[in-house]
Structure formats: C-alpha cells, structure tokens
Design goal:
heterodimer, A: 355 residues, alpha/beta, Rossmann fold, seven-stranded mixed β-sheet, five-stranded mixed β-sheet, B: 251 residues, two-stranded antiparallel sheet, 9 strands
C-alpha cells in the first residue's frame, strides 16, 4: 500500500515531475505557483538535477528549449502573465518539435488582474497561444491526485508526440490541500528514444539540427501538415474525460478543473432532486473530447457549460455537438469572490433541466 | 634524407566545404573559419554544440559540421544555458549578431555571463541589422545613416552605441571578454588568437568567455567591400576599441 499524504496541489505537481524523472527545472517566481519552484529547488540538488531561477519567463522557456533539444526531460512552471511571456518560446518549441512540460497555475486577468482562480486562459492554452498556427497538448487536473498523475502523463505524451504539453491548473487546485497517494512512475513500453537530440557529433554520426526555420520550396508547408497530422493522431488516441450519469441524462453539465469539482457536487444535488442530469469533464482540453459530446447528445438534447470566464470552452462544446443539442453557458469571470457555490450551479441546472 | 611534404594549410575539419550565402565582402565567412579553426585546434568538433541565433548567421548548421540548436531572436544564451546544464562535459557556443545580442537579447546575455555559464559567445558587431535590411542597431555609430535612422543616429533620441565587451567585463561571472576585428591580416591573426583563447577557457576552466568581432556589412552600408573595410578601421575601431577587457587566466 502506498502512503496517503496530505499535500498542496502545486507540491503534487513537483512530486509527480520528480517521480517521472524530470531533472531540469527553469522558472521565475509568480503567485500562485511558487510552491512548485520552491519544492523543486529544495529536492533537485540531492537528485543530481539542475534548478535555475532564470532572469525572466522568456529566459526560462528558452532554457527549457535548450534542455529539451539536448534530450532531457525538463519543465517550467508559471501563472497566466508569465505564460504570456513564454508564448514565443512555446511556438519555437512546437515548430522545432520539442517535448517539454509547461505548468500554468492560472490566475485572473486580463493584465495584472488578480491572483484568484481563473479559467480565462483556456483559449490561449488550447488554440496555440503563440504565433504560427500550432497546438500543444493541454491537460486539466481537477484534484491534487490528478496534479500528480497528469504531470506524469503530460511528460509521456509530450515525449511520444514530440510537442510541448501544458498542465492547466488554477489557484484553487494549486493551493488546496487534500489526500494524495503518490504511486511510482512507470515508463510506457512504447517510450521513444530521443535520437534527434543534440549531444555533440562524434565519429561518423550525422550532424543533428534542432530548428524551426524551413525556407526551401514546399518545406514549411509539409512541416505544417506534419504538425497537423500529429494533432489528428492525438485526437484519435489520447482523448481523456470523465463521464458521470450519462445513461438517462436529459441535460449534460460540463466543466473542467476546479469548476468541475463544484459542478460534480451540483450534479449530485440535482440527481437527489430527481433531475436527469449527467456530467462530462474533459481531462484533455487538447485534444478535446469531441466524440464524447457527440455521442452523449444523441440522446441528451441540452448541454450546460460552467466556466470561470465569460465563455471559452463552450465554443468547443458547440463545435462538438453541432446542431444535435442546445448549448447553454453559465460563467463567473475571475476575481475575488467569483467562485460559484454548488447551490448556485444546481440552480442553473434546475433552470434548464426538465423545462 | 629526402624532403617530405608537410601540409601547413587546409580547410578546417569543423567547417563544411560548401559555398556560403553571405554577400560579397561580408566577414561572417572569415569569422566562421576562425571559430572552426579554434574547434579543430582543441579537437572538440565531436563534442561541441552550437546555438544559432536569428539573422544572417542563422544558417550556422549549413556551414559548421557540428550539432546545432536554433534559438529565437536574442535567446541564444538562454537556450545554450539549457544545453550546457544537460551536457556539462560538452563545449557550447552561441554565435550572435548585434541586434540579437545587444538589443532584444540584452537580458539573456547579461544573466548568462553573470551566472558564469560555461559558454563561449561569438558576438558579430557590424553596426546594423543585416538580414532585416540595414536598420539601426544598438551598436550603430552616432550620425550613422541606416534605413530607420535616415537622418543619422541621433544620440539625443536614440541613445549611444552599446559597448558590450566592456559591459560584460564588469560582471563577476565573465572569465574572458575581448574585442577584435577581421579587417586586416594582422587583425585576423589577433581575432583567431582571441577566439581560440575563448574556447580554451571553456575547455580548461568551464568559464564564460565572450569575443566581440567587428565586422563589415558592405551591402547594408552601401559600400564596396574595400570601402567597408576602411570604415571598420577608421570609424568603428575608434569607437569600439580593440583589446582584452577581462581575462581571469592573466591575473
């Protein structure tokens, strides 16, 4: 039996990363994620790893680029304004087909905004974020246990598909403490060799180049289609979501991350009242669980989406259900005191369910 | 005893035998050769990783026969830091222009030097943005006309050309900082020595070494190669003094 620990979400990310063999961390302090660099800076030296508190978010993402190009499992972490600064580097990593973990413990915005929980960076995370038209893997934990588990999964998917992966949390999941059972990391059997990484060209081995510049006739177009094809393979093979009470549901509630925790309680309350309501919680935000929505709305004709913003994931829900269902939205844009209560969300469910 | 033939000059092993894309009179080719000679001198081709920057020198990997990572504009010292922290036993160098290193990448170069990262930085200063089309650089000289300073650099509004070698020499983390030019045989010999010294410092002490190379850009200066070479001597060297500004192995 593994021990049950009582830890913070951010600490669970750090623990999961170290357990998954990450030995290189580059970052810059920002609330509400600083527990991650604090934990890692304490633990990495005894593991023989390298921790750098960089001069900026821009430098830290580029250090990650360099470590990743060298074949190492490496990461950075930040929060919304810092993630904006990292977008240049993320675009270059995507273009250079480099893996690497970027943890975003979101805070509210725009601009300096505040430090409260927010889901306003959904678009930035799942639609590419930087320039040039690319996507990255985005995972959304909704518990401290998932902060640990999905950190490991993010590294594995990132290596398998040679693209950056983002763990999209928020200050509620990052700062709250709950039970964690830290299980040992198991390297997937199909884990690929990083034979593309730079290491010094010894002997007769051909030169290795990690780059995103393609100037030859047709080269960049082919490169873009190859990147696009990886997204298709991700959608075919790596979608993850949690489904609750869908069988007889007339209304499907959907939410991710911390909001999904509240939504789950609200759905339970509604069920106790006899309302036929179910829940889909996307765990992979990219690739988005389109098929799960398409399938569920073959019978359920209403979908209600909760988010801590003015409506972002709801766009992907609408695209997924096409015209098979009506899609409703209830949002609480981020800010102090804007976290909805289960009663509040249950009230929304009542509004659309059975009417 | 019969005389045997001895090879005294040849193409550097670390440099591919290909034609470059550089303009006539451009001195990147000369500087590339000096870097390759330094790698050959220490026999480190097989364990050297280059970090290319954005600008005319981005095609580093087409000319050097070594592993290369391409960095975003100005970020080469940060990318190289990531590479070096993974490959502690390898030789890592960046090759950057003046816009890249002294404008958009000022923060990255200062902090890489300040950390004393085990890197060698080759900084090519030609007082202009070359590939972008001759715009004003942080090293553009006072009164110098460029495509974005059409009336000449106005120091009252644009500030003064930045002397990076002196600036970095002031940091504790810097082991070696020197400025050289490649406009004459004598200066090329000096430049070769400085670049070799810089790589030697990384090989032997693992410290941070920096060589600024004054270089001509005839195309964007609107001059023929000979005139451009004269400009290096007459205008650039008087502002950007040649010399060694820090060398921890000398003290």
């Amino acid at each position: 039996m593994n021990k049950r620990l009582f830890v913070k979400g951010n600490e669970a990310v750090a623990m999961g990363a170290l357990e998954a063999g990450c030995r290189y961390y580059f970052g810059y302090p920002i609330t509400p994620q600083s527990d991650i660099p604090e934990y890692i800076s304490r633990e990495l030296p005894r593991l023989g790893g390298q921790f750098i508190q960089a001069e900026s978010e821009i430098a830290s993402i580029n250090m990650l680029l360099g470590a990743s190009a060298s074949g190492a499992r490496a990461m950075t972490s930040s929060s919304s304004p810092g993630i904006s600064l990292k977008q240049e580097g993320i675009s270059y990593m995507a273009g250079s087909e480099l893996p690497g973990l970027i943890v975003n413990i979101c805070r509210s915005g725009p601009g300096l905004g505040g430090i409260d929980a927010s889901q306003a960076d959904y678009f930035q995370a799942v639609k590419g974020g930087g320039h040039g038209g690319y996507r990255i893997i985005v995972l959304a934990p909704h518990s401290v246990q998932e902060m640990y588990d999905l950190t490991m999964l993010a590294f594995d998917l990132s290596d398998r598909y040679r693209m950056p992966a983002m763990l999209l949390g928020d200050s509620v999941i990052g700062q709250m403490k709950e039970a964690l059972v830290p299980h040992p990391y198991r390297r997937p059997d199909d884990h690929p060799d990083k034979d593309w990484a730079v290491a010094g060209k010894s002997g007769e081995r051909a030169q290795k180049i990690v780059k995103s510049l393609y100037l030859g006739d047709g080269e960049l177009e082919a490169h873009n289609w190859r990147l696009h094809d990886k997204c298709r393979r991700l959608a075919d093979n790596e979608v993850r979501y949690e489904a609750v009470d869908l069988e007889d549901a007339e209304l499907i509630v959907t939410a991710f991350g911390s909001t999904a925790r509240i939504a789950k309680t609200a759905v339970k309350m509604a069920r106790e009242e006899g309302l036929k309501v179910g829940l889909i919680r996307p765990i992979t935000l990219f690739p988005f669980p389109e098929a799960a929505f398409a399938q569920a709305t073959a019978t359920a004709k209403k979908v209600l989406c909760f988010e801590l913003n003015t409506g972002q994931m709801v766009d992907d829900v609408r695209l997924s259900v096409a015209r098979d269902a009506e899609v409703f939205f209830y949002g609480r844009p981020p800010g102090a005191g804007s976290l909805p209560t289960p009663e509040e969300l249950c009230g929304q469910i009542r509004k659309y369910c059975g009417s | 005893m019969s005389a045997t033939m001895q090879k005294v000059f040849g193409h550097p092993v670390s440099l591919k035998d290909v034609q470059t894309h550089f303009c006539p009179g451009c001195q990147h080719g000369t500087i590339h050769r000096l870097v390759a000679e330094a790698m050959d001198h220490f026999g480190i081709q097989g364990r050297t990783i280059g970090v290319a920057s954005v600008g005319c020198s981005v095609f580093l990997y087409d000319y050097f026969d070594i592993d290369v990572v391409e960095a975003p504009h100005g970020r080469a010292p940060a990318v190289a830091t990531g590479v070096k922290r993974v490959h502690r036993d390898k030789i890592v160098f960046t090759y950057q222009g003046d816009g890249d290193l002294a404008a958009i990448g000022t923060s990255e170069i200062i902090h890489a030097a300040n950390r004393g990262e085990g890197l060698t930085v080759i900084f090519v200063n030609n007082t202009t943005y070359g590939m972008t089309g001759g715009q004003m650089a942080p090293t553009t000289l006072p009164e110098q006309k460029t495509t974005t300073s059409p009336y000449g650099r106005d120091v009252g509004s644009d500030g003064y050309p930045v002397r990076m070698s002196e600036l970095l020499a002031g940091l504790e983390g810097t082991a070696y900082s020197a400025r050289v030019a490649v406009n004459s045989p004598r200066n090329i010999l000096q430049a070769g020595k400085a670049i070799r010294k810089a790589f030697g410092i990384q090989v032997e002490t693992g410290g941070f070494s920096f060589v600024e190379v004054l270089s001509a850009c005839p195309t964007n200066w609107g001059m023929n190669p000979l005139k451009a070479n004269e400009r290096v001597e007459e205008e650039m060297i008087s502002y950007f003094k040649l010399g060694t500004f820090k060398d921890i192995t000398e003290s």
